[in-house]
Amino acid sequence: MWIAVAGAVAVIGVIVWSFRRNTRGADEPGGRPGWDWESRLGEDARVAFMEGVRACHDQVGPLSLDEERGLLRIVDPPRLISLYLLADRFTGRGQDGLHDPQGTVRELVAQCVATEQPGVLHLRADWLSGEVDGMDRSGFTAAVREIVRPDGASSSGDESVGCLEVTLPGSPDEYANTALLDLGRVVELYEKARAERPAMPAGALLRDVVFGLINEAGPGLTWARPPTERHRTALLAASRPAT
């Protein structure tokens, strides 16, 4: 169960919107193709929720909406927030959300900005300065991306804030899902492991570190939506060290 922890933050900026259609979305009233995370909201709640999200840039700061992956991206401080998480919590507010969607969404987003939790990834612009074992930001991102490659998955890395996003395909009975990996956390674990195992080849050491982070499923890894066992197993198997 995802637990909300109170907090608040205020920054300034602009908002960028994505309007791509999700081919796996459910049909909604009026023939409008919907996104899976929107299915958590009734029609009135969906309209109110989107009104609240669109107003957030005035109080919370620069953000963009990735409807296809189900993510809200905050620019400063850099955060990734699950739209599944926000939609569930908005629904839980009942009539309060419908009567004051702007205030409700602003409060929910501020809580996520303030506190990292399942469905929320806190990132940082200074995640890697210089190099580690000869790998700069680009090289380190590419090396982790090469490790975390489940069959059929697609991935993208944001070197500016140290994030790797791995989208695993869906199946007839489940939706696609995106795993979010904090590369800054991977760097910290890698440097600690390097101090303990100075002679280990960089590739093998990095794979051990990435596997350990995914296996523990703790800070530094989250998902756009709660993962199925198949998706969790696929991500773990892809990063497993050779025996």
Describe this entry's structure for a reader.
By secondary structure, this protein is of the alpha+beta class. It has two domains: 15-122, no CATH class; 137-239, no CATH class. The protein has eight helices and nine strands. It has a five-stranded mixed β-sheet with strand order 1-2-3-4-5. It has a four-stranded antiparallel β-sheet with strand order 6-7-8-9. Helix 1 crosses helix 4 (101-114) and helix 6 crosses helix 7.
Can you tag this structure with a few keywords?
single chain, 243 residues, alpha+beta, 2 domains, five-stranded mixed sheet, four-stranded antiparallel sheet, 8 helices, 9 strands, 40% helix, disordered N terminus
Radius of gyration of CA atoms, rounded to a whole number: 19 Å
Number of helices: 8
Average of per-residue pLDDT values: 85
- Approximately how much beta-strand content do the residues carry? 15-25%
Order of helices and strands: EHEEEHHHEHEEEHHEH
Which residue ranges are poorly predicted, with pLDDT under 50 across at least 5 consecutive positions? 1-33
User: How would you write the strand order of the largest sheet?
Assistant: 1-2-3-4-5
Q: Sheet bearing the most strands, described?
A: 5 strands, mixed
Please give the number of β-strands. Answer: 9
Secondary-structure-based class equals: alpha+beta
> What gross morphology would you assign?
globular
Distance between the termini: 35 Å
Amount of helix: 25-40%
